[in-house]
């Protein structure tokens, strides 16, 4: 009989606790699949265990502490000591990925991290293995369940952002400090990881501009409904003009878009490439059991001997100014000629209008429009000019739109 595989578990919180339970529950299945029975060699938390002792007793390390410190030190030590590592830690990979991959390569051991992006959706494995030599054009999707829950609730109930956030916290979909979720930083870390995998080029968190959902108003969602749009916080990583663009931003989608119906705390990721057209995967983006299940899948892959490639093949430049379509919400004076003046400013910047709705009278007059794809720098310049017009009653509000309509 083969020796058992001894697993050192760093962190026994929401995910670590669920992983320990799942490991015990699925030990027979893991043994049947890989020929080796898994057992816990030790557990580290703030109050329990010693890292050095656990490492010495382990064949494989599972890191579920989170954050960059001390997780980085432990993961590097484990790799350098020749132990494969599984982690769910997006911050660690988005900030120190190159260093960790280099350490894994030098030691000839695997570093796996399926649970770091989009929870239980097997997007890391799919990009690394199924599409490992496919020329990917674009990876994008909803990679933060907290914001998707908030936007879905705001759209269906008409409630304000702060009220829905409080409800998300009560239900456990948002943490006590939700900043990194709602401001887009969490999604940016995940997109840095996906971009690196998809384009085989180093990408770190500080290269990913992000915007959150804190300023979205129920008003925007109500008007968007009228235009047939739904709002998502999207992460996008794509090839553009010989380089790549990786960004996170709130974005309206037309109802036929495959991501439009993805509601509540669910995540969904799309991959586009000439050879595969497009693939969409969706599922729970977080949760103790779900994340632990993705971690266990990585353990099984390591025991089965599958080795993903972490090579970077080229250094692609980051493209800063890309084209986007925008929704524009303007609170204007109820006077003749306002629409013409705004259209003139947009026209001066070579921006054409796709659709307009005009609503309200007097102090409630508004123009809500969608403009066709234009350079973001041109749109920003036009917006600055519009903001200065005497007819504006409030600062203009804008949100990107994906124009593509799926049938
Ligand atoms: N929760 C999710 O749904 C989810 C989803 C996807 C990915 N993840 C990722 O999974 C990882 C774990 O998340 P979690 O939600 O399970 O976190 P958590 O509930 O806060 O648990 C963290 C664990 O790490 C331990 N720990 C913290 N600092 C430590 C230190 N300095 N030394 C030793 N142990 C330390 C804690 O010990 P104490 O118990 O003593 O405090 C606790 O056992 C993170 O990287 C997170 O981003 C989580």
Explained architecture:
With 407 residues, the chain is of the alpha/beta class. It contains 14 helices and 14 strands. The strands form two sheets. Strands 10-9-6-7-8-14-11-13-12 form a nine-stranded mixed β-sheet, sandwiched between helices. Helix 5 links the parallel strand 4 and strand 5 (111-112). Helix 1 (14-25) crosses helix 12 and helix 5 runs parallel beside helix 10 (185-199). It is elongated. The mean pLDDT is 94. The structure holds NADP nicotinamide-adenine-dinucleotide phosphate (NAP).
Feature tags:
five-stranded parallel β-sheet; nine-stranded mixed β-sheet; binds NADP nicotinamide-adenine-dinucleotide phosphate
List low-pLDDT spans.
Answer: none
Number of strands: 14
- N-to-C SSE series? EHHEHEHEHEHEHHHHHEEEEHEHEEHE
Q: What is the alpha-carbon Rg in Å?
A: 24 Å
What is the mean pLDDT?
Answer: 94
Tally of contiguous helical segments: 14
Question: Percent of residues in helical segments?
Answer: 25-40%
Estimate the global geometry from the Cα principal axes: elongated
Summarize the main sheet: 9 strands, mixed
| N-to-C CA distance | 55 Å
Strand content: 15-25%
Q: Output the structural class.
A: alpha/beta
Unique bound compounds: NADP nicotinamide-adenine-dinucleotide phosphate
- Biggest sheet strand line-up: 10-9-6-7-8-14-11-13-12
């Amino acid at each position: 009989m083969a020796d058992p595989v001894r697993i050192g578990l760093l962190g026994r919180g929401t995910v670590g606790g669920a992983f320990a339970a799942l490991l015990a529950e699925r030990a027979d299945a893991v043994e049947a699949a890989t020929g080796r029975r898994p057992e816990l060699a030790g557990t580290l938390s703030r109050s329990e265990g010693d890292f050095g002792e656990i490492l010495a007793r382990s064949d494989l390390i599972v890191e579920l502490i989170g954050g960059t410190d001390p997780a980085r030190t432990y993961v590097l030590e484990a790799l350098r000591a020749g132990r494969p590592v599984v982690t769910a830690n997006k911050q660690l990979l988005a900030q120190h990925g190159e260093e960790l991959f280099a350490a894994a390569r030098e030691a000839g051991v695997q570093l796996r991290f399926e649970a770091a992006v989009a929870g239980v959706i097997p997007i890391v494995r799919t990009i690394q293995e199924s599409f490992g030599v496919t020329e990917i054009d674009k990876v994008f999707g909803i990679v933060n369940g907290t914001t998707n829950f908030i936007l879905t609730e705001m759209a269906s109930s008409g409630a304000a952002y702060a009220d829905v956030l409080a409800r998300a916290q009560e239900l456990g979909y948002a943490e006590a400090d939700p900043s990194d979720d709602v401001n887009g930083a969490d999604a940016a870390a995940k997109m840095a990881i996906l971009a690196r995998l998809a384009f085989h080029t180093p990408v770190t968190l500080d290269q990913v501009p992000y915007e959150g959902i804190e300023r979205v108003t129920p008003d925007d969602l109500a008007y968007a409904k009228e235009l047939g749009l739904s709002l998502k916080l999207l992460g996008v990583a794509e090839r553009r003009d010989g380089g790549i663009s990786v960004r996170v931003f709130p974005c309206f989608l037309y109802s036929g878009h495959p991501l439009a119906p993805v509601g509540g705390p669910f995540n969904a990721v799309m991959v586009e490439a000439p050879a595969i057209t497009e693939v969409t995967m969706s599922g729970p983006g977080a949760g103790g059991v779900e994340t632990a299940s993705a971690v266990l899948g990585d353990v099984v892959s390591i025991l089965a001997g599958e080795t993903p490639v972490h090579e970077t093949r080229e250094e692609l430049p980051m493209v800063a100014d890309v084209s986007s379509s925008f929704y524009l919400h303007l609170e204007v004076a109820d006077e003749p000629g306002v629409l013409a003046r705004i259209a003139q400013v947009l026209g001066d910047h070579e921006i054409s209008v796709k659709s307009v709705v005009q609503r309200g009278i007097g102090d409630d007059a508004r123009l809500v429009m969608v403009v066709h794809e234009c350079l973001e720098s041109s749109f920003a310049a036009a917006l600055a000019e519009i903001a200065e017009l005497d007819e504006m009653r409030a600062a203009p509000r804008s949100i990107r739109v994906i124009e593509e309509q799926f049938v």
